[in-house]
Amino acid sequence: MPQKKWKISQLLIHLIFILFSLCCILPLISILSISLSNEVDILKNGYSLIPRMFDLKAYTYVLYRPIQLLGAFKVSIMVSFIGTFLAVLFMAGISYTLSRQDFKFKNSLSFYVFFTLLFNGGLVPTYILISNYLHLKNTIWVLILPYLAVPWFILLLRSFMQKIPFNIIESCMIDGASEFRIFFQIVIPLAKPGLATVSLFTMLLYWNDWWLSLLYIENEHLVPLQYMLYRMMNNIAYLTSSTNMMPPSMKNAELPSESARMAMAILAAGPMLAVFPFFQKYFVKGLTVGAVKG
């Protein structure tokens, strides 16, 4: 009898997780279906999990200039990987310093990091600093440097590195290891779950960013993917509103508004969905950093 109850409970748990998984997967299937659907059918009958009228007009519009789109992909991939590497290395160094028990100014620096989490310099001073003093406008570095130090990620890594026994670090120091060697050969390998989690979040931050390019990028060769898709969506909205104001005799074919929006979502999310499995092994452990104190 206890075994039967155990099987029923296991079945219920599996059923709950299956339903939860479906709730996560069905929106992705719906987005793919809408991107492959006819725009007129979407406006008349709404969304569906299976395209009622198969149509590639949305992808034809989005991929109208493939070379320009590939260039935007190249910029986004370069910014995401270079920015993630530099940002994680920089934030790991700060976090390691804050986690050291023998660091004299640990509390003062921690307060400074926490203070920047609550307040920032403002848009106008930041724009003046980046454009007039640092001269980063219309360079690839303007898309990388502003996210090198994210306070929340620094505090997350610090919480993880505080769990590394200080006795290990002391032993390395007694053996004559330098601080750089301790950091790169001891701390970094032990902090893999936290680093993997922060790396994923940082990569998503770089990949999804369009705000920096809107402010600082005018060179078409430096436009990232998200900003290009943002401009496409604005163009569709403008053309749609202009078409609605025209007489019926002058209206063109229906523009792929909803289907193009979903096609852009597929193109933007595809690379990140491919990257996520490489971080999945460490992701859960990294997210629970600091949840249990022992």
From TrEMBL:
<dbReference type="InterPro" id="IPR000515">
    <property type="entry name" value="MetI-like"/>
</dbReference>
<dbReference type="Pfam" id="PF00528">
    <property type="entry name" value="BPD_transp_1"/>
</dbReference>
<keyword id="KW-1133">Transmembrane helix</keyword>
<keyword id="KW-0813">Transport</keyword>
<feature type="domain" description="ABC transmembrane type-1">
    <location>
        <begin position="73"/>
        <end position="279"/>
    </location>
</feature>
<feature type="transmembrane region" description="Helical">
    <location>
        <begin position="111"/>
        <end position="134"/>
    </location>
</feature>
<protein>
    <submittedName>
        <fullName>Carbohydrate ABC transporter permease</fullName>
    </submittedName>
</protein>
<keyword id="KW-0812">Transmembrane</keyword>
<feature type="transmembrane region" description="Helical">
    <location>
        <begin position="12"/>
        <end position="36"/>
    </location>
</feature>
<keyword id="KW-0472">Membrane</keyword>
<keyword id="KW-1003">Cell membrane</keyword>
<feature type="transmembrane region" description="Helical">
    <location>
        <begin position="182"/>
        <end position="207"/>
    </location>
</feature>
<dbReference type="InterPro" id="IPR035906">
    <property type="entry name" value="MetI-like_sf"/>
</dbReference>
<feature type="transmembrane region" description="Helical">
    <location>
        <begin position="75"/>
        <end position="99"/>
    </location>
</feature>
<comment type="similarity">
    <text>Belongs to the binding-protein-dependent transport system permease family.</text>
</comment>
<feature type="transmembrane region" description="Helical">
    <location>
        <begin position="140"/>
        <end position="161"/>
    </location>
</feature>
<feature type="transmembrane region" description="Helical">
    <location>
        <begin position="259"/>
        <end position="279"/>
    </location>
</feature>
